[in-house]
Design a protein that fits this description.
single chain; alpha/beta; Arginase, Chain A; eight-stranded parallel sheet; two-stranded antiparallel ribbon; 9 helices; 33% helix
Length: 290
Amino acid sequence: MRFEEAYSGNVFIKSGSDYDEADAVIYGMPMDWTVSWRPGSRFGPGRIREASIGLEEYSPYLDRELDDIRYFDAGDIPLPFGNAQRSLDLIGGFVRRILSDGKIPAGMGGEHLVSLPVMQEVAADNPDLAVIHIDAHTDLRTDYEGEPLSHSTPIRKIAEQIGPRNVYSFGIRSGMKEEFEWARENGMHLSKFDVLEPLREVLPALAGRPVYVTIDIDVLDPAHAPGTGTVDCGGITSRELLASIHEIARSDVRVAGFDLVEVAPVFDPSEQTVNTASKLFREMLLGFVK
């Protein structure tokens, strides 16, 4: 079955209609089955797409416009409500198809656990993979209340697969003491509170390597993005996050895949969060798809 037949719904602005011609494939992962606080991120992908209609197609930051790149929006992956493992399996199979076709996976969440099968598939395709993780939370737990499949565990699980020294977390301001200790003891790079300056210091060491970029919208201060499931005060500004995306885009890393997760529109009736997320995703597309 072709993607055009399998998935439907709104598409991100200027999406091409030909999967075969695309260099990157956008897809939604509408899952929030394991959240520890407020559900609602399963509605994020659809609302980000809707907000994209109001975007300009040109980025003055990167001097590129959406017509300069080729991407296809496959819509949301149909996921079985409440079944976390089956949902992760379906996401992994979808991304495996994209990678086998030589395309860059560009995902929208959904809770952060949806990033795990994507990172695993990209790592299988790129043995030297590094992960750039931008988030308010460590996501380094082994489980949450005894459940290993949780949005608080994906970074721990991918770190155990590719090695903690290949995971670089930025903007972290919340987590258990044991998570910070585990990162330190295992040589994982974890920058607390800030993103842009520590990212600039790290990127030269990643030159030439494939990188997966995963951004949790809650790295932003709630003043900039209240529409998320686990808000945490003291975050960065949207301007700093945009600058961080551009820093990655202008570096010598090869972005092998990326996602933006944890947008929960129901908690922001002003629609500020979905509009911010939509612009961030545009910049990720223009910066990461060469």
